[in-house]
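User: Hi! I'm working on a homework problem where we have to compare a predicted structure to a textbook description. Could you give me the structure for the chain below?
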Amino acid sequence: MPLDPQARLVLDALSAVTMPDPWTIEPAVFRAQVREMRVAAPLEEIGAVEDRRFSGPGGELALRSYTPLERGAGALPVLVFFHGGGFVIGDLDSHDGTCRALANAARCAVVAVDYRLAPEAKFPAAAEDCYAATCWVAENAAALGVDAVRIAVGGDSAGGNLAAVTALLARDRRGPRLAHQLLIYPVIDCAFDTPSYRENAEGYFLTREMMRWFWHHYLEKPDQAADPTASPIRAATLAGVAPATVITAEYDPLRDEGEAYASRLAQAGVAATLTRYDGVIHGFFGMGNAIDKAKLAVAQAARELREAFAR
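Assistant: Happy to help. Predicted structure tokens:
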């Protein structure tokens, strides 16, 4: 369908901002410039927010826990959330609004993970951090006030990759048991040859060249792209992983790989819900202040998390 008018307004605003060519500067400099360009937006009121730290595979890592505004008695179900940013950019602050919205709508706790970024920490550092953080949440559930048997993982873009990988590692390493995986326009494969990559290579916020830049910095060696811990769709089988919600955007280079992953999950006997949001772009899920379909997507994700936690 045609580009959503609200998405067009977002793209027009973004086109007015001069972004540096990331290939011409150091990733740390690009990361800092992106951080400075963030636009402050109203944040949902939340029950509680607490910054924490835990000992990860490569050293101490930061977490941020969210308690919903409305909650019942007893331990809360919990979503362990991994932010997007191509494995190179993004942090706890970049996705603070998304975590607040999900906590309130799903009526669950959210624990956001500040995993190590590339290229300072190459593959598989981010994946191991996210799996370790999920294990830590399960092991420390009582102290966190969450339910160790109602844990989901989720994330957007690169964070969706890390959620899918964490689900694979939880299966292969025999725990923790996951109730669900929420994959929001996830990075699923290190390939740039799908129809959506060709159709949406330029002009829709995330570009094919930007994805090449992200993968270039994430992987130590090109042949690591075949590792399912980098490209989860290349796993020999997806049988036995947690049920999934997969959300894609029509005008997104990553659309087809996310949808292919949902199909492979279903073929492996894994319950998987796939929803494509027509007319919108990569990143729309966190743009609820500008794009109405983001609110619909958050509501859907929250509903499916609630249903998963109730099983």
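For your comparison, note the following. The mean pLDDT is 96. The first strand starts at residue 48 and ends at 56. Good luck with the assignment!
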